[in-house]
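Extended Data, panel c. Modelled sequence:
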Amino acid sequence: MIHALTLILACQLAGEALTRLFGWPAPGPVLGMALLFVLMLASGRVAALVQPTGEGILRHLSLLFVPAGVGVVGHLQQLGTYGAGFALVLIVSTVLALAVGAGAFVIVARLTGNRDKSDA
């Protein structure tokens, strides 16, 4: 597990270093995740090393939201002041995300020819 976590964090560090070095607008952790993905595609050994640790992290992903919850509780006064605006933004962004996701699914399904039998 230590080796897998070291590899995951090293990829994140490499992504962060590359984005800062070249001034790329992408977040470093996203670039690091892409780097890790390429490494896992290139080597089955890397994928086998990272898979159990990655699954463990995903299994306990809700723990990563604890700091965000503490931040919300720490700023309850602002939440009360701007609560209506926050609620509106959350609702609109959720609806947009669902619409874009559904639209992307439909486009990909049409491009790959995986349409429902009733569409034909």
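The chain has two domains: 1-66, 73-120. This feature is highlighted in the accompanying rendering.
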